[in-house]
Amino acid sequence: MADLSLIIKPWVTEKANALSRMGKYVFMVKPEATKNEVRKALKKLYGVDAVKVDVVNARGRKRRFMRTFTPGRRYKKAIVTLKTGQTLDIIPK
């Protein structure tokens, strides 16, 4: 069963905006989310059908404080390709 809290927020950047014109949308998801769970959560949350879901595990940037470096927060992104003809209105224009 897909948990709706798996999708944290839409990822809004210039690159994500360009991808949305091609029917691909980017979301920040929880690290334990799988492709099938993201697909089911999108179906419940937005009522759209995902044809393809790609997942990217991104490591955090290193942060420097005086002489020490600490790792930044890791995050996971899901790039979702929707069925042709379906759109989402999540990207501000």
Q: Rg to the nearest angstrom? A: 15 Å
Task: Average the pLDDT over all residues and give the rounded result.
Answer: 90
**Helix-strand sequence:** EHEHEEEE
Kindly report the CATH topology. Alpha-Beta Plaits
Number of domains: 1
Percentage of residues assigned to helices: 10-25%
Count of distinct strands: 6
Shape: elongated
Given as residue ranges, the uncertain stretches (5+ residues, pLDDT < 50) are none
The CATH class label is: Alpha Beta
Q: DSSP helix count?
A: 2
Give the helix/strand layout:
Elements: E1 7-10, H1 14-20, E2 24-29, H2 35-46, E3 50-58, E4 63-65, E5 68-70, E6 75-82
How does this structure look, described?
The protein is α+β, with helices and mostly antiparallel strands and 93 residues long. It is 20% helix and 35% strand. It is built from two helices and six strands. Strands 1-2-6-3 form a four-stranded antiparallel β-sheet. A two-stranded antiparallel ribbon has the order 4-5. A hairpin with a 2-residue loop joins strand 4 and strand 5. The longest helix has 12 residues, at 35-46. The chain starts with 6 loop residues before the first strand and ends in an 11-residue tail after the last strand. The model has no long low-confidence stretch (mean pLDDT 90).
